[in-house]
């Protein structure tokens, strides 16, 4: 297991996270749906794009700042909404929020977080986004909007690809439940994760803080996360509901999970301001395209009517560069910072972001680009085409 300061890339952080976590927690971060082809493709798709550098340019000063979702970020990427961070480290969502603030970028809080949206709002002064579902309890959805307004959230993000939970077989094999449940089958895995187990004994609270006052499913004991999702999420949600939510919010409004140009056009029509082009990290429908492969077709359809955020598969700074050159306004990362969180709490998230930002600086310098706004398709060559 590499020490935190010796983790030189996201893959190293993943190995450290694996050594720190019980198997159910690690594989919940690490796994995808069905055969996990989509999850792998999310990253492998970047290999189909080659970078074309231009030399003898003045790149003494690099500018990574990006304007997205009505705010300026110091980096062209931010932290995606991911549920239940307490599963991975006792510093939970606070650790990621503080690390994002240190790097001058945005933190996104999930509906299914183990810290309340009000507590995260006061954790740092940086801009924040709240990720929302339209649940069967529509009044809870309305309540979320009002709470986010009162707490000063910058943007609201509606996830649309989770009408039913994906077939995440690793969770079934490893007995992943919320809250965690130690069984004879996974006892050894829990018992050898000494630091995680020690902090579990100190603080066994895994409450879903934003919904606990309205949803009592987990009060009945540990249950499979797939069962929880299937019991609470509404399969009848339509574009009319999304339009209603955009009107209720009346601010930067993001739809997360769209991949098709047709759906992107619908998002324009209902008042969205941005898309997180995402397949939920390959954790929902198997066999769908990688987010980075969707950017150009969506741009061709809607032009600049929406900001586009690539969400999924990013493991290197060059991946961020390729996404921006493909036409994205920004990127978001999920697994990379969760590996960091599991590897070392706030320090681990900071390490993950330092790695990606350092790679961005170095790669932009070598590419001959001093500002992320200069990145365009002229810096890309599809792998099946030769440069001239």
TrEMBL record:
Residues that, per the record, bind glyoxylate: 28, 133, 168, 280, 283
E.C. number(s) listed in UniProt: 1.1.2.3
UniProt keyword annotations, A-Z: Flavoprotein, FMN, Oxidoreductase
Residue positions of the active site: 280
Binding residues for FMN: 81-83, 110, 131, 159, 256, 278, 311-315, 334-335
One GO MF term: FMN binding
Primary enzyme class: oxidoreductase
Needed co-factor(s): FMN
One Pfam match: FMN_dh
InterPro entries: Aldolase_TIM, Alpha-hydoxy_acid_DH_FMN, FMN-dep_DH, FMN_HAD, FMN_hydac_DH_AS
PROSITE patterns (UniProt xref): FMN_HYDROXY_ACID_DH_1, FMN_HYDROXY_ACID_DH_2
Gene3D superfamilies in UniProt: Aldolase class I
FMN hydroxy acid dehydrogenase domain segment(s): 2-385
Tagged with keyword Oxidoreductase: yes
Similarity-based family: Belongs to the FMN-dependent alpha-hydroxy acid dehydrogenase family.
Protein name: L-lactate dehydrogenase
Species of origin: Paraglaciecola chathamensis S18K6
Name of the coding gene: lldD
């Amino acid at each position: 297991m590499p020490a935190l300061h010796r983790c030189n890339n996201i893959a190293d952080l993943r190995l450290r996270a694996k050594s720190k976590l019980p198997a159910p927690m690690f594989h919940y971060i690490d796994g995808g749906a069905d055969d996990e082809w989509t999850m792998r493709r999310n990253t492998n798709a970047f290999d189909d794009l080659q970078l074309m550098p231009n030399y003898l340019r003045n790149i003494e000063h690099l500018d990574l700042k990006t304007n997205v979702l009505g705010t300026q970020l110091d980096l062209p990427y931010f932290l995606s909404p991911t549920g239940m961070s307490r599963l991975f480290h006792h510093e939970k969502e606070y650790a990621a929020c503080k690390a994002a603030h240190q790097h001058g970028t945005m933190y996104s809080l999930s509906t299914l977080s183990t810290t309340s949206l009000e507590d995260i709002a006061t954790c740092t002064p940086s801009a924040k986004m709240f990720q929302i579902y339209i649940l069967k309890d529509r009044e809870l959805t309305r309540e979320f909007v009002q709470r986010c307004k009162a707490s000063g959230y910058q943007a609201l993000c509606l996830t649309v690809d989770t009408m039913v939970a994906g077939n995440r077989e690793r969770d079934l094999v490893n007995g992943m439940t919320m809250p965690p449940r130690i069984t004879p089958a996974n006892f050894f895995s829990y018992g050898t994760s000494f630091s995680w187990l020690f902090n579990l004994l100190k603080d066994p609270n895994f409450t879903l803080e934003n919904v606990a006052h309205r949803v009592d499913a987990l009060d009945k004991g540990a249950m499979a996360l797939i069962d929880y999702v299937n019991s609470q999420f509404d399969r009848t949600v339509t574009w009319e509901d999304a339009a209603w939510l955009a009107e209720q919010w009346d601010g930067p409004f993001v739809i997360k999970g769209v991949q098709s140009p047709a759906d992107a056009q619908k998002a324009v029509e209902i008042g969205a301001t941005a898309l997180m082009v995402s397949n939920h990290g390959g954790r929902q429908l198997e066999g769908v395209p990688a987010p980075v492969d969707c950017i150009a077709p969506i741009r061709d359809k809607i032009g600049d009517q929406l900001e586009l955020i690539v969400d999924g598969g990013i493991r290197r700074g060059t991946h961020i560069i390729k996404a921006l050159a493909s036409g994205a306004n920004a990127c978001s990362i999920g697994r990379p910072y969760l590996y960091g969180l599991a590897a070392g709490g706030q320090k681990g998230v900071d390490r993950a972001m330092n790695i990606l930002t350092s790679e961005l600086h170095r790669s932009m310098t070598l590419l001959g680009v001093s500002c992320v706004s200069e990145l365009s398709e002229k810096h890309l060559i599809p792998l099946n085409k030769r440069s001239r």
